[in-house]
Amino acid sequence: MTKNHQILATKSIFLILGILLIAANLRGPITSVAPLLDSIRSSLNLTATQAGLLTTLPLLAFAFMSPLSSKIGHRIGLERALMVALVLILVGIMVRALGSISALILGTFVIGAGIAIANVLLPSLLKRDFPTKVATLTAVYVLTMGIGSAVSSAVAVPMSNLAGHLNISFMPDWNFALVSVILFPLVAILCWLPQMASRTDPAKNTAELDSHSYVWRSPLAWQLTFFLGLNSFVTYIIIGWLPSMLMDAGYSEIEAGFNAGLLQLATALPAIALIPIMGKLKDQSLLAFGTALIALSGILGLLLLPQFATVWVLVFGFGGGAGFIVGLSCISHRTHHTHQAAALSGMAQCVGYLLAATGPILIGSVHDTTGSWNLPLILCAISCGLCSVFGLLAGRDRILENKQSGAIVLSDAERA
């Protein structure tokens, strides 16, 4: 290997490490709230609907920032835009640490804005720098994202208990637990700094772009959007309310928090199974369909046999996580180039997260009205069924095309 090849290999290793550390921040600051939700509600006198807003706010931030994220990336470069994302996550955690209701809401929204930028731009970065390994690296970074969120969820209650034992008086115990996740963005920022030194020049990285408005007229784009949106709709409902569901079913707070962490880990496990096969599949229809059905079986298990909740948490997490990986991979497989991928990613995440944002509040309201988790779980099951249909459509071997007649899709064979 020549010296130049060694330098390139080293840069690639550090770039991948940086990507994985960014990925570790893309759920943890949000999912760490769920195991502490009852404590937060008691401390701040929140209703179930208001508590659901804490899970919904990041999704609203995702929806608001997703269309802007690709523009930010085009204007300042992907590397600097991702650094902005990490700084926003860090600042959001610090604001949230102030402990008031307004600070909690504002900090949560800022965290969501930072996560949204990274969510949109990471697939674009992978397509640009690792075009032949998109599926594999997508699976790896989703695995890292799941591990980061699993750790954050699993240690939330123990960290809160630790604050109580240490008699920390300047903030509530639950707030100490939320602040502890600040370590993740700090480490990621330090490791991403070398990428800033060799950042892509936006003038060279970004060609003159059209608005990509044709993406919004494409049936294929909408099919992928609803597949990801319904997947997120159900996933964030379960992430936000699983501990409350389990405690109402007789589980202790520690057991509920453990299962919340297990859920996050389960969403990461599919990456291990999908890494060897995702790069080889041009048609992901059956895979997308199957992941939604697995998630559906986990929901039905929680509804009918809650005494085996740990099993159903693993099943749902595996199906939901696999669907998310397949959906992200489809963004790259359904597009020609980096800018088109960023446009499709922005659309899918904007509309998808707007849909998902309704979930936690809707379910909180339904639970308050019925006093039971049965109807909320039935609604989740129906959503999984719809998700499987859109997965069949979105996973087909088609590519977005921009032609004057509008957005059409062609298979590889048709393009040949």
Spatial shape:
globular
The CATH superfamily turns out to be: MFS general substrate transporter like domains
Helix and strand string, N-terminal first? HHHHHHHHHHHHHHHHHEEH
Gyration radius, in Å: 21 Å
Can you give the helix content as a percent range?
over 70%
Q: Number of DSSP strands?
A: 2
Please describe the biggest sheet, giving its number of strands, its sense, and whether it closes into a barrel.
2 strands, antiparallel
The CATH class designation is Mainly Alpha
What proportion strand? under 5%
Number of helices: 18
Taking strands numbered 1, 2, ... along the chain, how are they ordered across the largest sheet? Answer: 1-2
What would you say this structure looks like, in words?
The chain has 416 residues and is mainly alpha-helical. It has one domain: Growth Hormone, Chain: A (Up-down Bundle). Helices cover 78% and strands 2% of the residues. It is built from 18 helices and 2 strands. It has a two-stranded antiparallel sheet. β1 and β2 form a beta hairpin. The chain is globular. It starts with a helix and ends with a helix.
How would you sum up this structure in a few lines?
By secondary structure, this protein is mostly helical.
Please write out the topology.
Elements: H1 3-23, H2 28-31, H3 37-44, H4 48-76, H5 78-96, H6 101-129, H7 134-165, H8 173-179, H9 183-197, H10 202-205, H11 219-248, H12 253-268, H13 270-278, H14 285-304, H15 309-333, H16 338-370, H17 374-394, E1 399-403, E2 406-410, H18 412-415
Antiparallel strand pairs: 1-2
